């Protein structure tokens, strides 16, 4: 017996050793920085280090809340992500429901192969593509507009177009990819359900409504919760790359603001305070979404 | 009577479905196709809007100038190094973490999962991380490009689900009877059976490294260390052509060739991904499906 326990422990130590490198990585690059969050409440002096710098309370949070940027970046962040979610979330679901009805395997495969592809394009290349296509003098989109007798538009330089460009390009890039998970869920629907529906004389639309949609509802809810939890992290890199002084009115979001004050103006404490505010809202949204999901259905993240 | 109605409804539905899917197909495909034809067309023809469906006046000057440029080659080389080394690190750490977590008898497994999940939703933010990297002395070194994103929690969960669901527990019991330790079992039994998940991890991590630009932007000052994406950014987005690209050109030519260079460079930088894409497709579909198994 004792021998067995010893043997078991000896085997467990190998498991401990295996996870060690990753645990060290997380401690250094994830938990280490969490310790650094305290500089949001301090006047950071590099010489004294994080621990040695004096506490100043919520000075930097107050500064953020009182700054003229506060409402602007908060509104831009929320609007951008709400639009993105409202416009982008249903598209893969609809596409998957339609694709699931396609009997011609070649056509189905073609649509899938082509619509997945943009997912693998880098964010730099995507924004580069937007720049060349939307260019007022040489871009494809304005050539089309001129072809129909319209006036060329400087899309990237107009604040009123920023959200549309951001959301539409996001759908272009990720809608196809998003269908995979729903198609997988649809593949798991039992054939007897379809048979029964057909016997009852259901039309294809009725089958989608009464068989397909209820079957993928759990997947939809889980993905929705995960998206809500990320609502404050709206594609920071894309917003950052698409941004220019002309469209800042609508393109400045919390994260781009945090980057600018932090790394360009070197206001470490202020930037950390802004970022902490962002994270806190995120966590609250995630917890709320999860609670709502739990209340109305059996599906939740935990 | 009812039957014909259903048939009619279905017919209308089929037409609407086909129209929607074909439209989606064209909307995604045309911009990609246009970039290819534009990159080999005459610069003036593109800029005046005369290229639509076929390339006009084949002109490879764009590619010629791209390939002549040193910075492109440096970026390419750096990105290949970062991708190969970074992905190897990713793979080893992820498997070493996912295997113990997939074992029911691993006593602290639950706590390790919580330890990992916390980092998905909560992090120190940009500046504390920046200060940490600085403290460790990784600023402006190539190591920062391969170490910073060593493990992705989502990928760990995918790998763990795969190991849990695809490798029969009886294999482990048999191996233990033969006196096999976890390490030997992992190497001799689990890894050979895990080819699909290894392919998926290679793909996800590899693409992430290939497309990475932000880490370079923040932590690298030395241009010789720049990844390809950072060089792309200056050309595509900030409109800064490298000198070698546009020297000996008049102003009008510069504009035309400049556009050609932009289209060409999109192709050149995405080429490796485009080439391997068809071979990898079955793996990434598999990957999402494995991942959708709730772990």
UniProtKB/TrEMBL annotation, chain B:
Pfam families: BPD_transp_1
GO BP annotation list: transmembrane transport
Keyword Membrane: yes
PROSITE patterns: ABC_TM1 (PS50928)
Localization: Cell membrane
Xref: InterPro entries: MetI-like, MetI-like_sf
UniProtKB keywords: Cell membrane, Membrane, Transmembrane, Transmembrane helix, Transport
Membrane topology qualifier: Multi-pass membrane protein
Spans traversing the lipid bilayer: 12-40, 80-99, 111-130, 142-163, 260-280
The keyword NAD is annotated on this UniProt entry: no
SUPFAM superfamilies: MetI-like
Limits of the ABC transmembrane type-1 domain: 76-284
Domain of life, per lineage: Bacteria
Cellular component GO terms held in the UniProt record: plasma membrane
Family label: Belongs to the binding-protein-dependent transport system permease family.
Protein name, per record: Carbohydrate ABC transporter permease
Organism ancestry: Bacteria, Bacillati, Bacillota, Clostridia, Lachnospirales
């Amino acid at each position: 017996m004792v021998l067995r326990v010893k043997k078991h422990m000896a085997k467990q130590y190998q498991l401990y050793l295996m996870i060690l490198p990753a645990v060290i990585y997380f401690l250094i690059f994830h938990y280490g920085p969490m310790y650094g969050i305290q500089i949001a409440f301090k006047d950071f002096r590099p010489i004294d280090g994080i621990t040695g710098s004096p506490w100043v309370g919520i000075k930097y949070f107050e500064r953020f809340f009182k700054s003229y940027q506060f409402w602007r970046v908060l509104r831009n962040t929320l609007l951008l992500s709400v639009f993105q979610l409202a416009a982008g979330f249903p598209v893969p679901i609809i596409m998957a429901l339609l694709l699931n009805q396609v009997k011609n395997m070649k056509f189905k495969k073609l649509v899938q192969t082509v619509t997945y592809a943009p997912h693998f394009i880098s964010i730099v290349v995507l924004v580069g593509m937007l720049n060349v296509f939307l260019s007022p003098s040489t871009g494809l989109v304005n050539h089309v507009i001129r072809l129909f007798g319209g006036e060329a538009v400087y899309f990237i330089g107009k604040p009123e177009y920023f959200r549309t460009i951001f959301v539409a390009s996001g759908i272009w890039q990720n809608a196809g990819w998003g269908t995979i998970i729903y198609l997988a869920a649809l593949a798991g629907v039992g054939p007897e359900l379809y048979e029964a529906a057909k016997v009852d004389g259901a039309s294809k639309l009725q089958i989608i409504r009464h068989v397909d949609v209820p079957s993928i509802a759990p997947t939809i809810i889980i993905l929705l919760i995960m998206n809500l939890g990320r609502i404050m992290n709206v594609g920071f890199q894309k917003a950052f790359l698409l941004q220019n002084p002309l469209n800042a009115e609508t393109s400045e979001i919390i994260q781009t603001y945090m980057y600018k004050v932090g790394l360009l103006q070197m206001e470490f404490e202020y930037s950390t305070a802004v970022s902490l505010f962002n994270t806190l809202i995120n966590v609250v949204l995630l917890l709320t979404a999860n609670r709502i999901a739990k209340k109305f259905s059996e599906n939740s993240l935990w | 009577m009812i039957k014909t109605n259903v048939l009619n409804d279905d017919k209308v539905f089929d037409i609407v479905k086909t129209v929607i899917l074909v439209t989606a197909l064209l909307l995604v495909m045309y911009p990609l196709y246009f970039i290819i034809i534009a990159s080999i067309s005459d610069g003036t023809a593109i800029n005046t809007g005369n290229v639509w469906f076929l390339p006009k006046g084949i002109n490879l000057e764009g590619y010629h100038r791209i390939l002549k440029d040193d910075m492109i080659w440096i970026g390419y080389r750096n990105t290949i190094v970062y991708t190969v080394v970074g992905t190897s690190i990713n793979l080893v750490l992820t498997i070493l973490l996912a295997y113990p977590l997939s074992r029911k008898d691993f006593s602290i497994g639950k706590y390790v999962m919580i330890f990992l999940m916390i980092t998905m939703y909560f992090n120190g933010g940009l500046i504390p991380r920046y200060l940490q990297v600085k403290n460790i002395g990784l600023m402006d070194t190539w190591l920062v490009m391969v170490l910073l994103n060593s493990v992705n929690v989502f990928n760990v969960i995918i790998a763990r689900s795969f190991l849990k669901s695809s490798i029969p527990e009886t294999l482990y019991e048999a191996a233990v009877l033969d006196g096999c330790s976890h390490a030997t079992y992992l190497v001799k039994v689990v890894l050979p059976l895990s080819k699909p998940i290894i392919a998926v991890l290679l793909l996800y991590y590899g693409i992430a490294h290939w497309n990475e630009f932000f880490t370079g932007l923040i932590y690298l000052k030395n241009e010789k260390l720049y990844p390809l994406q950072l060089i792309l950014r200056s050309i595509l987005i900030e409109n800064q052509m490298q000198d070698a690209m546009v020297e000996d050109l008049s102003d009008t030519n510069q504009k035309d060739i400049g556009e050609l260079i932009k289209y060409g460079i999109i192709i050149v930088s995405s080429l490796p991904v485009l080439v391997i894409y068809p071979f990898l497709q079955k793996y990434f579909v598999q990957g999402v499906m494995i991942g959708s198994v709730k772990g």
